Amino acid sequence: MDGFEVFFVEKWPYLATVLMILIGLYGMVLKRNLVKKLIGMNIFQGAIILFFIIHGWKRGATVPVYDEAFGDLPANYVNPIPHGLMLTAIVVSVATTGVALALLSLIYKRFGTLEEDELLRELRAEPAGAPSSGEMASQREDVEGAEPDDGGQR
Amino acid sequence: MSVKWTSRLWAGAGTALATLVSAVGVAAAAGHEMAQAHGDLSAIHGAATQSPDAFQIPAMVLAPLLIGVVLVPALGRLRRSLAYQVTVVVFVAYLAVALKALTTVLAHGTLHYKMAGWMPPVGIEWTLDALSAFVVLVLAVVAVMVAIYSGVAVRRQNPEREVPFFSMMVVMMLGLTGMVMTGDLFNLYVFFEVSSLSAYALMAVGDRKAPVSSFRYLLQGTIGASSYLMGVGYLYVLTGSLNMADVASLLPHLLGNPALTVALVLMVAGLGLKMALFPMHLWLPDAYTYASSTSTAIIAPVMTKVSAYVLIRMIYFVFDSNWVLSDLHLGFVVTWLAMAGVIWGSVMAIAQRDVKRMLAYSSIAQVGYIGVGIGTGNPWALVGAILHIMNHATMKSSLFMVTGIVEMQTGTRRLQNWNGLGRKMPWTFLAFTLAALAMVGVPPTNGFFSKWYLALGLAGAKQWVLLVLLVLSSLLTAGYFFRLLERIYARTGEDVGSGSARVGEAGDGGVREDGGANADGVKLAGASGSGIAGARDPGLALLLPPLLLGVGTLVLGLVNAWFVTEVIAKALPAALRIPGLGG
Q1: Residue range A94-105, pLDDT digits in tens
Q2: The CATH number of the domain where A14 resides is what?
Q3: In principle, which of A98, A120, B271, B504 could form an S-S bond with A131, CB 3.0–4.6 Å?
Q4: B90: helix, coil or strand?
Q5: Structural domain total, chain A
Q6: What number is the ipTM of this complex?
């Protein structure tokens, strides 16, 4: 194999990571819909998770559980630490997505749209730093529609 | 529709964080299995050799917060007012342990805590040295003050959300404390996200626009955190270790490896974004302005500072600061970007009409000072940066709390409506004035001394242009704060245009019993005073925290020599020790 082929055969995981990061950034920066921005964020995080996983992998190695046939040699087992780390990172990513979706539902409730252009137009129409009647209305709704199982004693 | 959207937000955030906390346990279990698979359990799981009481302290710092994370929502469910009381008790306990930690560290040197007894390069290590103990103490002081203030403030502004609000506050302080204390690169990322997620939730409370700015902050903050994580990935691939001390000892063999440069640049970019280093500050003004005054008062003084602390940790303790700042010219980049942020933040602050937004822009400027101190690489400049972490935390939380008080008492935070308030609310504005003077850097206050050390450092590094810009930026700061002080004290409130006082419209009485009316008869959420004309000082619970911090700027200014010689001199990295100072 010549140098060019080696580059693609050996380094394709890096190229894939970079590509995914760029796709994610594209979604976050250029898409005008907030949900699409969130999807971009997830792709971005996924790229980094894959980057770690790739580095835990070894050619011809088995899962990191002791096996008589593979013996004591560490080279025969894939590195489990990146997997352990990414387990946590995936949870972080899920948690971030959860908070983001909660924010988005709140935004949709208040403004009736998730398109950034429409949202910006509406935001600029209001004076800076104004808690508006919408906030009050939604809070009144909160009080009236209080669910008995939420918020403890009232 | 009778769905409680806001409570869903809280439920979402709460569930997310609970998942996150359990994930730490899962990761620990995974590490355990891994070690067993290698069959070298006994080698790693060694016995602790440090004296038992001293080495427990890092865990004890986190213990009140960990207990609080459970207690606040649990007891808050029984009775809502308990959430506030438990939070204050938790933070006071946290402050007590933080004080004990600092004195112990100063007396006995660095403390190491091995999580679950696993020895460092494999297990997660928590480290308390003079620097982290100092930052933890700053966090604790701000936490106690803002917690006391929040009791009344949250009840007035967001009466339905006391319990989740205080829970999130405790979780955020837990995350920040973890970031400061951890000696493990990946553990830092997890705490990073714990604090960030709770901050996103806190910032979504407030104005109608708050969720939008919070969502933007979430996207940008995630880019920052992910970029840091990518840097950790490169470091892990290069060294095979995640322990900061271990990585630091392995890195000298790797200097010149391009992957190391990539790791560093990714980390600095990610942390710079979270600390609002120019030009990555775009999330900050909106997020700080639209969040409720309590959210801003707790987030603004600590969030960006802890990111700055982590940047110091990375550049000076993990990497070789000489290589980073001089050989890679990163010092030049960071210093000039930070200085651009100082100037930009100050100029934008002058242009603002909303006091809270003005303070948000001035936050960018103040974080810029810390960045200048970090990037210069001179010991005195670094002293200035570390001192400014404490000083800015005290002044900014005081200023934001006063803004919240004025908003609650008069229903306005527009600049032109603050005319003559100084005579109506003398004690409130005593706090504001002291903190404002500290921001400008008037000599006996603490703000003067951090700038003084920065100037010493810049002179020592022969950065004359930066020195001139530093002085110039102080003039700009004086420009916007003295303009405000002139309004507050010298003008009378009678020339206020009648329409300009409107901050919000309600048009539906009876939503809040305590919704006060201002001069135009317009109601504002949480306003209890009778408008600008009848503005008066609030009760002691609201007044005391900003006043104490305001007086604190004066006291800290007078005793700054003790902090510099006894604490910060010991916190400096070995390469930058100042001869004749500290240990």
Answers
A1: 999 999 999 999
A2: 1.10.287.3510
A3: B504
A4: helix
A5: 1
A6: 0.81
